[in-house]
Structure formats: structure tokens, C-alpha cells
Specification:
Blueprint: H1 11-15, E1 23-24, H2 27-37, H3 47-52, E2 56-59, E3 65-74, E4 77-84, E5 94-102, H4 104-112, E6 116-120, H5 121-138, E7 148-151, E8 154-156, E9 166-168, E10 172-175
Parallel strand pairs: 1-5, 6-8
Antiparallel strand pairs: 2-3, 2-6, 3-4, 4-5, 7-10, 8-9
Length: about 180
């Protein structure tokens, strides 16, 4: 973290389109979201590192918004961080607008709607592999044996001195075992 106390986005976030501006999360937002999504603010103690080293970066639902899939775990699910880069016309900062846990099948649904922007290759493959095992074991109604995930998005491999190496993925498919 820079000396000014703000966290700046690193390679994979910038490659996804998040500007090189300080990322801000207001304390009252943490408490409000923790109460709404039922977690403890202490669960987010490693949030700055998790944001800058995400599994994936996805398009948000609003213009100038992004969703960052992190390795942080809350309530048995990975934490998603929603950010806006032009909130109410303010472009000097990137604001964290929400922090919540999301089930793996919910993330798969987002990826299946072409919201994927960038992936950390190793982390995303581990995440999807673990998810395939979990959904196969539970075989819930959201993911049947015929479901598959097809992603076409650049992958950012392990960062070397804040440089990202990008590969184009033609198709990544996960079929759930019957």
C-alpha cells in the first residue's frame, strides 16, 4: 500500500479497465454491508491484498462498474467486491460500493453472461476446479450434469513485478460429472 494510505490497483485490475486511482472503502459501508450480508468486518482484514490479487475481474451491472472475485472466504463462499470508477461524476477515486459473499453457481451464472474481463490463470483454474467438485458433489438444481461454462476472456498469469502476461482463452469448459 502506498504511503498515502490508499490502495492502488495493480496489473490485473488495470488490465480489466480499472483506472490507476486510489481504491476507497468507507468504514460505514463495511458495517452496513456486513450487517446486510451477515459477516463480521474482521472477515475482511486482508481485503486490500485480496482485491489486488483477485481470481477474476468481471463487468459490473452499471456503467463504469466492476466486480472483483477474491480468494477471501465468508460464509463458505468467495467474496465479491463491487467497485465504481465514476460514482456521481467523481473520477479521481475508485469506490468500493459493496462487499459480499457469492455462491459459486452465482459466479458461474455471471461468467456465462459474458461478464468476464480478466482472470488470474492459476487461481481461476483452482477456483473452477474446486467449484466443479463441489457442485458435482451437491448436484443442486442450479447446476445439472449438462451445465457447462464457456469463457472467452483474456487470462492474466502470475504477476511478475506488476507486469501481467495475457493469453487469449478460446474456450474453457467445465462439465459437471453426472
Amino acid at each position: 500500500m502506498p504511503d498515502n494510505g490508499y490502495s492502488l490497483p495493480l496489473g490485473i485490475l488495470q488490465a480489466a479497465g480499472i483506472p490507476n486511482n486510489p481504491i476507497i472503502l468507507y468504514g460505514n459501508k463495511i458495517f452496513k454491508k456486513a450487517q446486510k450480508h451477515i459477516y463480521k468486518p474482521a472477515d475482511l482484514k486482508d481485503l486490500p491484498n485480496a482485491i489486488n490479487n483477485p481470481i477474476a475481474v468481471l463487468k459490473g451491472n452499471r456503467a463504469d462498474s466492476f466486480v472483483i472475485l477474491t480468494e477471501l472466504n465468508v460464509n463458505g463462499n468467495n467474496v465479491l467486491v463491487a467497485v465504481e470508477t465514476n460514482k456521481k461524476g467523481i473520477t479521481d477515486f475508485t469506490f468500493i460500493t459493496s462487499v459480499y459473499d457469492k455462491s459459486g453457481t452465482g459466479v458461474l451464472n455471471w461468467m456465462n453472461t459474458d461478464k468476464a474481463l480478466r482472470f488470474d490463470k492459476e487461481k481461476s483454474l483452482n477456483y473452477l476446479s474446486a467449484l466443479a467438485k463441489t457442485t458435482s458433489a451437491t448436484n443442486n438444481s442450479e447446476t445439472s450434469s449438462s451445465d457447462s461454462l464457456r469463457i472467452s476472456a483474456p487470462i492474466a498469469e502470475a504477476q511478475d513485478n506488476q507486469k501481467s502476461f495475457h493469453l487469449e482463452v478460446q474456450m474453457l469448459v467445465i462439465n459437471h460429472d453426472p
